[in-house]
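Hi everyone, sorry if this is the wrong subforum. Our group has a chain we'd like a structural model of before ordering constructs, and none of us has done structure prediction before. Sequence below.
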Amino acid sequence: IQLVESGGGMVQAGGSLRLSCAAAGFRFERYDMTWVRLAAGKGPEWVSTINHEGSEFYADSVKGRFTVSRDNVKNTVYLQMNNLKPEDTALYYCARGSHAIAISSRQYWGQGAQVTVSS
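Answer:
Right subforum, don't worry. Here is the predicted structure as tokens:
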């Protein structure tokens, strides 16, 4: 499978970024897709999941600020991040599978997109 993230960058606190993850090599519409982030010196943190039916799930730390969506025609999952905070600074990965699968193994992660939020 192939997962390619894009859209990372550096913003000031309160700003917005939109991450995209283009998928290939599997039947995208059949899979849950998850966003995970890795901050320096910390373990993987689940951010959000959108299941194959389009239901959305968020970590408490991002609820109300981040929005996950998917386009099954473009085989792409998105993460709209608003009101960014310095503590959101991390490498963001999209992963194929549910929350549990994504956190337990990096086998189906993309290459990551750096998000840096300055105060």
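For your construct planning: The two ends are 37 Å apart (CA to CA). The chain has a mean pLDDT of 96.
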